[in-house]
Each structure stands twice: as structure tokens, then as C-alpha cells.
Amino acid sequence: LIDGKNFLHDSWQRPEGGGGTSCMLEEGNIFERAGIGFSHVRGNKLPPAATAAHPEAAGRGWQAMGVSLVFHPRNPYVPTVHMNVRFFVARAQHADEKDIWWFGGGMDLTPYYGFEEDAVHFHQTCKDALTPHGAHLYPRFKAWCDEYFCLKHRNEQRGIGGIFFDDFSELGFDLGFAMLRSVGDAFMMAYEPIVMRRIGMPWGERERDHQLYRRGRYVEFNLVWDRGTHFGLQSGGRTESILLSMPPLVSWSYQRQPRSEEHTSELQSH
Q1: How confident is the model at residue 3 (pLDDT cuts 50, 70, 90)?
Q2: Are 76 and 69 in contact (CB under 8 A)?
């Protein structure tokens, strides 16, 4: 509704079991690329990305279901956003075992030019979504997000964070699922007002150059550190859908130093 152009819907099946639908918008009015993916897949053997955290689940049959999205706007003053919610279960193999299951997800914001009011709004919306399910959750998930979305090879954050959680089962299924729904339902409230505030800001070649350079950090994180990307590729998932989150255009520069006017613009925007 914000962009005005329609998404392409691409449904697919996974040979080992399950499938999903990838929805893609490219060259939109506002979003240069926007991807939304739903998947419900299953398999007989967990990949290393899952067994590293749960070695007791090795050798079990499993199912995973999730919704994920990444929006890459064209205007450099509008931030990129990511959100996903997911559920995973490794089935018990014997009568004396129990299913191993957990929820995961969250949302995070990656501005190219930062505005304090946008950061405050995004984090407050995340906090409001979690507080009814436990006052301790937002501080914990915020810190988890900051730790997770860190490019350790550069000692940099990917963006301004948000919330992130994984391997989460402590509330039980019903309450945990209610919390997961709250996170998903809060996404539009967190992101749409920021888009509407920034979409009319004029920009030019300087801002575009900075945006493409910073998008490189997004790609680096997804390929080097992202657990979901690793799980998808290691489990034989559909590559086109796994890499749906990638920006359409990106650039790298060797030992780039900010130009003086670019540095001034970033300081003013903060």
C-alpha cells in the first residue's frame, strides 16, 4: 500500500519436504527491492547451523516455519528494515525423549543517515510490543540484538538495532506464540511512520554513494554471520529465497575515508 506497486508471488517446493512462497518487489516507487518470504520446511537431519546450539537434537527429524522480510528503499534517508518470526521443532525419536522446540525472531533498523526521533520511535514500539509479555524481555532482547547484529570482523554494528531472540521456549508454547504474534503485529507501527517522515527528503549522488557503500555491510553480515542464512544454505534450501534479503545494488571501497561534506551531513542528521 505504501509503495503502490504489486509484489511478484513465487511459490516453491523443497525436494526434502515442505515449501513456501517468496514475494518480491523490485524497482518500486519507494522500495528499490523488498522481499517477504514464508516457508514451512522439514528434513531428516539437522544442519550444523542448528546443531551447534542444540547438539542434543542431532539426528532428529525437524520442521521449521517462518516469515521474514527485508525492505531496501531507494531514498538514502529512508532506512532499511528487517523483521522475521519463526518456529522450529526437532521431533523426539524415542518414548523417553521430548520434542525440542523454540521460537525466534525480531526486527532491526539500518539507517544510512540517522535521526534520533526515528531510533526512539522504533525502539519504543518494540518495547511496547514486548512489555505485556514480561517487563524483562525488551532490555534482554535489545541487548541480544546489539550483540547479534555486530560485524565482528569490523567491530561495527549493522545498524541501530531493535530486538532479537532465538532458542526461546521459556514461556511455554501458548504464551511464547502470543509474544511472537505481538512482535509481528508491531512491525508496521514501528516502520511505516519512519518511511512517511523521510520519503520526501531530497537526495543526490553523494547520498546515493554513501547508501551503496553502507549496504556492503549488510551483505557482509548476511553472508558471514547470519544464522538463518547459514541454516538455509546448509539444509539445501532454495537459494533464491534464502538470499532474498540482499540489496539490488551495493559497492565496496578499499579503506574508504568519509568526505568532509559527507561527514558533516551525517553529524547534522544525528
Answers
A1: confident
A2: no
